[in-house]
Design brief:
alpha/beta, seven-stranded mixed sheet
Length: 365
Amino acid sequence: MIIGHGGNVKALAKRLCCPTEEIVDMSSNLNPLGPPKGFEAYLRDNIKEIESLPEVDAMGLIQAFSKAKNIDPSRIAAGNGTTWFIYTIIPALKLKKVLICGPAYSDYKDACIMHDVKYTFVHSDEDSLFVHDLNRISDMADNFDTIFICNPNNPTAGLIAKEDLVRLIKKHPETLFVVDESYLPFVHGAEELSFINNTELANLILLSSMSKIFTIPGLRTGFLTGDSKIINRVMNYSQPWSINALAQKGVIYLLERKEEVKPFLEKTRQFIKEERDIFSNNLRHSYGITLFPSQTSFVLAKLTGKLKADDLCQYIGDQKILIRDCSNFHGLSDKFVRFSLKTQDLNNRLVNFIKQALEHNNKLD
């Protein structure tokens, strides 16, 4: 269940016999700009928070999220990361039959397996540039009690228009839709595209991550929003003190500094767009690799020659750069890799190493 995610820096450092600090992680989808200015200093200044128990129900965190997002607190649950919610909502809501819009984050499937729940995939594919077929999903929807949709999707980076999702969700009021917006903050106009303020769709629950956009995955904090009856059922499965004291303190800090965070988000989105365009253009005409359109901070690619994903990951890893082998995503093969963007210098280094690997493989062909 925990095997095959990105970010396994320690394993690569061990293989290369080097310090972890020398490894560049381009496998985890985190903001290349790092946390907002002043945030790490704030955590250091408040390190003594760990000497006391955190607020048992994280109500202060919920109230801060409520104020920042203009949502009734009865519609909010705070948890130990969005992945914690993925594993919690299945038993809490007594789900029986789940449809997963894939290729997708493996924990949707793994959570079903853990709780012995039947699941089925409905895949987008490379012929459609990994755009979800909403008509096909709609045709299947009434046969499932719940549908998981990641938007923008991981690992394919495609984005479904909000109005199209609204039509789909309204058409199937007896089916619960779990929409994961973990990567939406990287997209221009994210606030208008988000379902965060939804009160109209009672069969929608939303996952909101703090980890990716603020580069704080180690603090493990996420939010679930939806109808208050659903929130109550989910929180009946919540354990006391499930969010640590430093995480509560730090995330409240971010939520309360809306005017400071807004330009940080705008800067991030512009930076990501520019770097993604440069990165894609630099590889666009390279023989042996095809890049798929992306709306977020990472790019999915297919290797079209004899080179396989693990071969490329091995070669790039030897250069102390970690990229994501996507062969364990259901619906993808051993020809797919994912690149998470960093600074232009690091992105260009990666491009050069990819080209070297492709050229070496093409000579062997």
